[in-house]
Structure to design on (157 residues):
């Protein structure tokens, strides 16, 4: 009985998660392109900068983003605080600091709150550790972290 209940709840949870991702682009702000940015490989210490293009599809109201919240303190952001005028396009930039994140796959959810609604953005990828290279008689070559800038892809995935 417990196993059957667990299976039913798992299936319902999966379907609900799929609906959340499908319905997270509602309201007067529309993400141009995909809601998810993927970085298949980065190294510990890198900063992944995700640029999401957004459009105000309202014809009369300026939209003000009230807050951006993430499931991790390793996420920083930048957005236009003066609002997005009607029928115009702007961007939200999400910075993922990988320095204190453990190596391996990651999946980050970012919630953008505006006008009593919100939309969800996603970042996904894999963090690896780059070890120093030691050569006899020389200083070790130590990896210098990079800032990787990514735009959200045009097709929704």
């Amino acid at each position: 009985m417990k196993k059957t209940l667990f299976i039913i709840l798992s299936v319902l949870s999966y379907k609900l998660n799929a609906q959340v991702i499908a319905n997270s682009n509602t309201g007067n702000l529309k993400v141009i392109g995909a809601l998810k940015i993927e970085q298949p490989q980065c190294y510990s210490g890198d900063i992944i900068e995700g640029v999401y293009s957004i459009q105000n599809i309202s014809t009369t109201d300026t939209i003000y983003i009230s807050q951006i919240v993430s499931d991790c303190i390793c996420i920083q952001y930048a957005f236009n605080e003066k609002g997005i005028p009607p029928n115009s396009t702007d961007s939200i930039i999400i910075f993922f600091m990988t320095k204190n994140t453990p190596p391996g796959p990651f999946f980050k959810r970012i919630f953008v709150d505006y006008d009593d609604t919100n939309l969800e953005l996603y970042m996904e990828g894999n963090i690896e550790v780059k070890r120093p290279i030691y050569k006899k008689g020389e200083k070790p070559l130590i990896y210098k972290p990079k800032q990787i800038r990514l735009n959200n892809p045009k097709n929704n995935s």
About this structure: Helices lie at 2-23. DSSP finds one helix and nine strands in the chain.
